[in-house]
Amino acid sequence: MGLGPRWLPSSSLGLRRRVRRRLGLGRRLASAVVVVEEVPPESRRVSQRLSLTAQPLAPTVSIRNTFRAFWPDTRGVRRLFVAGIVFAILAALCEVAAIGLFGYITDRVLSERDLGAFWAPAATWLGLAVLAGLVSFAGAYVTAAGAERFLLKLRDRVFGHVQTLTPDFFENRRLGDLMARLTDDIESIEELVGSGLVKVFTTVASVIFFAGAAFVIRWDLALVTFALVPAFLVVSKLFASRFRNAAARERTSNGIMNSVIEESLSNQSLVQAYNQQQTEARHLHREGRTWLRANLSQAWLSGLYGPSVQVLETICLIVILGFGAWEIAQGRLTLGGLLAFAAYLAYLYPAVQSLGELALTVSQAAAGSDRVLEVLSVRPAVVDRPTAAPVRGRSEGRIEFSRVGFTYPKRIRATLRELSFVIEPGELVVCTGPSGSGKSTLAKLLLRFYDPNTGGITLDGADLRDLTRSSLRDSITLLHQENLLFSGTIRDNITYGSPDADHAAVVRAAKLADVHDFIQTLPQKYDTPIGQRGRLMSGGQRQRLAIARAILRDAPVLVLDEPMTGLDVATAERVMEPLRRLMEGRTTLLITHDLRHVPEGVRRIELEPVRRSDRIRLRRHHFGVHAAGNC
Ligand SMILES: Nc1ncnc2c1ncn2[C@@H]1O[C@H](COP(=O)(O)OP(=O)(O)OP(=O)(O)O)[C@@H](O)[C@H]1O
Hints:
ABC transporter transmembrane region fold; 2 domains; single chain; Rossmann fold; elongated
């Protein structure tokens, strides 16, 4: 009858995303480990729900608190959402007017057989249809524009927060689950706080308009109609809580499945070398079945919801038609009036129904937002003190560890105890010791990924805790054990950390790192892509690229964590030369257990693993002493 498909803004958006979620596994990477000790106060009401894999679900957060947490992020896009609501209301008004015209045409033209009275209302109807089409389009567009911008802002905020967390956070979680939280789960928040809210307003407005128009035609008939509306809301409430639980399980298993995919794909050479393809496929299949069951629960609920509401709707229409026929027989209603009334109901009930559906959408979206809020509630293990000051000028590079003791969070045995040493400006000191003795831990403490439990570390006499972390890290270059590269070009990787460096500086660093000649042999030279994490390069080439990056950064302190790992003797020799150039004039802590390449006469710090007795003593003192010795 009317003006084409009714416009309900977020249903299409939400549906589109849900469909994408179901089909879009390919674009996602990797699982769900939920750390329960760092949760907001409200999550003390942690639900006891468990996923199908017996994995705890994210703590449930009330919708009001979800709004409180994310509403400020809608600043800047609220105007778009308001415009979306206004356009939707205009579209609904056009529909109301068009149905009124339909009733008029039935009574004045069809019943009285007066063709002359047809043209003017017909032209108006057409005009309304065009207008409704235009405002529907405008409404859908501005709502989508607001939704996507909100999403962008939200993702930036959550990603920004995640980047403030110390490496410990990432070491305790599976990457794929974090990725799912940063992509799909963030979209859920948009569906709740952005387009979801627009849909609530526009649907409520539609209900009011269609109900009002029906009331104007016959108030008593309308009252009978409205008396049946609560039945719709009761049904949707019955479904909503079950739906939220199913959605939470789906979100969690989605994270697990992403983790399996990410870990399997990123370790493909290991998987294939060990002939574990079938095992990995079975693993994914197992997790996929969990996901499937959670999705089927949702499909079962939403599938059952539609027919239940439809039966209710039919009952209502039959009751109304019966009453209407009686009113026509009494002469209190015209045929056109009854048809228009029925048409309003045909719009009113779906609007009421979509209000109910909204409860399901909200439940589903809330399950995703719980997972994002859980991440946002984690506080970084190390923060800047309010009084922290930046490193003054260029650091001289004098480092002092004084009686440092350190135990990793959630570990009983201390990693370092009473460790004291000094590295003078420009000095090279080698740190050796067996595996697990805490060598890399020194580097983490120096960069303040963690703070020592006892004692202190100073740079140029200033306690690291009194310096801002960004200025501290600007003063130190860490060359990791596994050279970390991004999948960009050679230039991108060398200039990482020094984005303003010009080409001449990049070439100079590459020459000093002894990698320039190799780069010249590549088809696109400095603009050659190096593959995922630099896998198109050999180990030695990757290491020399990392050295070039460190040279370009030019920090006064250098921490080299096993720079020769995985290199054969000849390659290690080749890497050592640029390393010596890099170390010149810089305070250097060289962590290695391979002393073959260490120059003569260099001071050595030897670590030994913490003894078991230290652990027993720690237990006995119950966290009284945190460190266990090894220097
Ligand atoms: N993030 C962490 N959380 C808990 N324990 C950790 C963490 N990182 C390291 N450890 C533990 O701390 C101890 C010291 O680790 P570290 O990596 O510093 O040793 P290392 O001397 O560098 O060893 P390697 O020579 O094998 O690299 C080990 O027992 C290790 O299991």
